[in-house]
From TrEMBL:
<keyword id="KW-0457">Lysine biosynthesis</keyword>
<comment type="similarity">
    <text>Belongs to the DapA family.</text>
</comment>
<protein>
    <recommendedName>
        <fullName>4-hydroxy-tetrahydrodipicolinate synthase</fullName>
        <ecNumber>4.3.3.7</ecNumber>
    </recommendedName>
</protein>
<feature type="binding site">
    <location>
        <position position="200"/>
    </location>
    <ligand>
        <name>pyruvate</name>
    </ligand>
</feature>
<keyword id="KW-0220">Diaminopimelate biosynthesis</keyword>
<dbReference type="GO" id="GO:0008840">
    <property type="term" value="F:4-hydroxy-tetrahydrodipicolinate synthase activity"/>
</dbReference>
<keyword id="KW-0456">Lyase</keyword>
<dbReference type="Pfam" id="PF00701">
    <property type="entry name" value="DHDPS"/>
</dbReference>
<comment type="pathway">
    <text>Amino-acid biosynthesis; L-lysine biosynthesis via DAP pathway; (S)-tetrahydrodipicolinate from L-aspartate: step 3/4.</text>
</comment>
<comment type="subunit">
    <text>Homotetramer; dimer of dimers.</text>
</comment>
<dbReference type="GO" id="GO:0009089">
    <property type="term" value="P:lysine biosynthetic process via diaminopimelate"/>
</dbReference>
<feature type="active site" description="Proton donor/acceptor">
    <location>
        <position position="129"/>
    </location>
</feature>
<comment type="function">
    <text>Catalyzes the condensation of (S)-aspartate-beta-semialdehyde [(S)-ASA] and pyruvate to 4-hydroxy-tetrahydrodipicolinate (HTPA).</text>
</comment>
<keyword id="KW-0704">Schiff base</keyword>
<keyword id="KW-0963">Cytoplasm</keyword>
<dbReference type="InterPro" id="IPR013785">
    <property type="entry name" value="Aldolase_TIM"/>
</dbReference>
<feature type="site" description="Part of a proton relay during catalysis">
    <location>
        <position position="44"/>
    </location>
</feature>
């Protein structure tokens, strides 16, 4: 079952605005070196809607090669029958990360029917990407359990924006063989405390070892370490999400010299300098105060 911290890699661009493949490869190895359980290609953080087909394929090709070299799991953002079918030829792909249909607001029976059909068509397992503030579609615990019972659905990336009673109930009695991965960076520590199996965190491009240690500490029951580290990392995530993701993450990676430019593509625009400075300072505070070597 999926577990640990997965990093949904940004798409770095060079000074000319093209995908900076060497930088992407470097980031992939860096986060795996720091203990990330696996990678996500074409997550929200990758700005997939701003990449053309060739760029998307180049990103998946590169990250699939890295995951093959590192024997690491790879999730790939893919939400249509055509997109998931295209993953069949890629043996490195562990699962598709498939968005609850956005904007349409089909209702919960429609969501279940959608994922039943998508899973039946998919050559790879599915992780349901549930992010209602982006999709406009809420899902009850009962519906999440119905999704978990679908053949081929192996988990959920849960990004409901808070720790809700429904979330507590789901984690009190999680469906067997169904991974619950947190997708809300600022509340990932309490979600792990409740028993989430792991996380998909844009924040984990930075202080990667800290986020890995956070998940490990909650898993082994080291509550003092987990609680203290969780508070500090939550402050870092809040700073990294003070402007639309991944604008701040990219700016900090550029400030660290890890990517050639902080460029984001429209409709995203660079964050205010003050936001970037605050995130850099928060990262330094987290890194400086931690016994866990962080970058
Ligand atoms: O790229 C992702 O996957 C994530 N996207 C979330 C979002 O921006 O809504 C944030 C999370 O860190 C992972």
């Amino acid at each position: 079952m999926l577990s640990g911290v997965y990093v949904p890699l940004i798409t770095p661009f060079d000074a000319a605005g093209a995908v900076a493949r060497p930088a992407l490869e470097g980031l992939a190895h860096e986060v795996l070196d720091a203990g990330a359980a696996g990678l996500v290609a074409l997550g929200t953080t990758a700005e997939p809607g701003s990449l053309d087909q060739e760029e998307q394929e180049a990103v998946v090709d590169l990250l699939a090669r890295v995951c093959r070299e590192r024997d690491a799991p790879l999730l790939v953002g893919a939400s249509t029958p055509t997109a998931v079918t295209a993953l069949g030829a890629r043996r490195e792909v562990t699962a598709a990360l498939s968005l609850v249909p956005p904007f349409v607001r089909p209702g919960e029976p429609g969501v279940v029917a959608h994922f039943a059909a998508l899973a039946a068509a998919s050559p790879v397992p599915l992780v349901v990407y549930h992010v209602p503030y982006r999709t406009g579609q809420q899902l009850s615990p009962e519906t999440l359990r119905r999704l978990a019972a679908l053949p081929g659905v192996i988990g959920v990336k849960l990004a409901v924006g808070a720790i809700e009673a429904d979330t507590v109930g789901l984690l009190a009695d999680p469906p067997a063989g169904f991974a619950v991965l947190g997708g809300d960076d600022t509340v990932i520590s309490p979600l792990l405390a409740l028993g989430a199996h792991g996380a998909v965190l844009a924040s984990a491009h930075l202080a990667t070892a800290g986020f890995v240690e956070l998940a490990d500490a909650w898993r082994r029951g080291d509550t003092n370490q987990a609680r203290e580290l969780g508070h500090r990392l939550a402050e870092l995530s809040a700073a990294l999400f003070a402007a639309p993701n991944p604008t701040v993450v990219k700016a900090v990676l550029h400030a660290q010299g890890r990517i050639p430019a902080p460029t984001v593509r429209l409709p995203l625009v660079p964050p205010d300098d003050e936001i970037v400075h605050a995130a850099v300072e928060r990262l330094a505070a987290v890194s400086g105060a931690s016994a866990v070597a962080m970058r």
